[in-house]
Design brief:
By secondary structure, this protein is an alpha/beta fold. The chain folds into 3 domains: about 1-165, no CATH class; about 180-350, Rossmann fold (3-Layer(aba) Sandwich), CATH 3.40.50.300; about 360-430, Helicase, Ruva Protein, domain 3. It is about 50% helix and about 10% strand. The protein has 20 helices and 10 strands. It has helices at about 1-20, 40-45, 50-65, 70-80, 105-110, 115-120, 125, 130, 155-165, 195-215, 240-250, 260, 270-280, 295, 305-325, 340-345, 360-370, 380-385, 390-410, 415-430, and strands spanning about 135-140, 150-155, 180, 225-230, 255, 285-290, 330-335, 350, 375, 415. Helix 5 packs across helix 6 (about 115-120).
């Protein structure tokens, strides 16, 4: 990092010397930097060939994280008596006492005070790959603020990577309404009918070959980015497990979105929350899983008042962000009929997760009973599978109940009465029998 700070120091001081009339020409900073390619920052710069203006932008945004007083020291050297220097830009935050560079800071270092030269650099905030990939961004400004006066900021995960060498996964919270979900299970543990499995494997194929299809084969000109899928079916039929397995076998993080944390009763807040979520997810190669999506994507209401009007606008905005998201988005619903048909037309695939048939139920019983457990002589799993219509989640709950009863008796053989009692509890819970 010291090499990069020296590079930035030369670039800024050279610009100040020239603009303040101390020298007749700009001194270009040394570009032959000797970076450690094993270091996270050096490796990133080398692999992505970050140089010239992009390198300057990257180092400008990173500097407050590693040297909080860097910009203050330079300005104090040139203006020891203090005073305003608006040309340099920069802002201060609530907690950080040093100068945080802005878009204006970047423009000053790149182009100085000449309006025509500065204008040539305006597109850099949209065209730079660092901005396109969400690594850098300009903070939004108020209506009365000039466009480039927003703070030049680095995505928190990249800042963490470049300063510590590692990145912690974002956690569910007010600022990030999504939870990382994982599974220890394998594809063999997922019991679905063949039609559903075939459709799932089509998604897996897209995840593995999307880059080649869009870039190498040129389909990016004809297809919208991303892939949108809807899972529908009763609870406990494997929708969440399927999403987790897709992530596991394609090495992508799966985040389950808590829609209750996204939506807000305050006008404009929902769109802000949605925007924050998708901005963070962009270019991260995540799978976004919207569970119980009918809560938001249900049939839109007739506009009776302002609340209905804004509710429909919020859904439309969410749908727009989903359509433009470059990764895989999965919406899960209990019933396909709950989702507005205007939404379902936007999906590449709609996959049903029906109640398992007797053959699938038998497989679920066999796969989930622990190897150490033994079944009592009277237990016939094939007959139980035909008689009781249970989901995979129901069956796991029954097995857990029966196993705990067995362990509490200090036995290894599961008794039929415990298994049947567990089944009864699940059927009562589902409302399929009365007490």
């Amino acid at each position: 990092m010291n090499e990069l700070l020296k590079f930035l120091n030369v670039a800024i001081r050279s610009r100040l010397d020239f603009e303040l009339g101390k020298v007749d020409s700009l001194q270009k900073p040394q570009m032959n930097l000797h970076l450690n390619k094993e270091d996270a920052l050096g490796k990133f710069i080398f692999e992505h060939q970050i140089q010239n203006q992009n390198l300057l932008l990257l180092v400008l945004a990173l500097t407050p994280h590693v040297d909080p007083g860097f910009f203050n020291r330079i300005i104090q050297d040139y203006f020891p008596k203090g005073g305003e220097f608006p040309e340099f830009g920069g802002v201060k935050s609530k907690n950080h006492r040093g100068i945080i560079p802005t878009g204006e800071t970047a423009l000053y270092v790149l182009a100085g005070n000449d309006p025509n030269t500065r204008r040539q650099y305006f597109p850099i905030f949209q065209e730079s790959e660092l901005f396109k990939k969400g690594i850098l961004y300009l903070e939004e400004v108020g209506r009365t603020d000039p466009e480039w006066s927003g703070a030049l900021l680095m995505d928190s995960e990249y800042a963490e990577l470049f300063t510590t060498g590692t990145v912690n996964k974002p956690k569910l919270g007010i600022n990030f309404p999504a939870e990382l979900i994982k599974t220890e299970l394998e594809w063999e543990d997922l019991v679905l009918n063949s039609k559903t499995l075939d459709q799932i494997h089509e998604i897996e194929e897209w995840l593995k070959h999307e880059q080649q299809l869009m870039n190498d084969w040129g389909m990016g000109k004809r297809l919208k980015p991303g892939f949108r899928v809807m899972f529908f079916g009763p609870p406990g039929t494997g929708k969440t497990l399927t999403a987790s397995l897709l992530g596991k076998y394609t090495k992508k993080d799966v985040y389950r979105i808590d829609l209750s944390m996204v939506t807000s009763k305050y006008i404009g807040e929902t769109e802000k929350n949605i925007s924050s979520l998708f901005d963070k997810a962009a270019n991260k190669n995540w799978i976004l899983f919207f569970d119980e999506a009918d809560a938001v994507f249900g049939k839109r209401t007739n506009v009776r008042d302002a609340h209905d009007k804004y509710a429909n606008q919020e859904v439309s905005y969410l749908l727009q962000r989903i359509e433009n998201h470059p990764g895989l988005v999965i919406l899960a619903s209990n019933f396909k009929s709950n989702i507005d048909s205007a939404f379902t037309r936007r999906f590449q695939s709609i996959i049903e997760f029906p109640y398992p048939g007797s053959a699938e139920r038998l497989s679920l019983w066999q796969k989930n009973i622990p190897l150490k457990a033994k079944l009592g002589k009277g237990i016939k799993l094939d007959l139980i599978s035909k008689k009781y219509e249970l989901t995979g989640a129901n069956i796991v709950n029954v097995i857990q109940f029966a196993c705990l009863k067995t362990l509490s008796k200090k036995k290894e053989i599961i008794e039929e009465e415990d298994l049947l009692l567990g089944i009864k509890k699940e059927l009562l819970k589902e409302g399929k029998i009365s007490n």
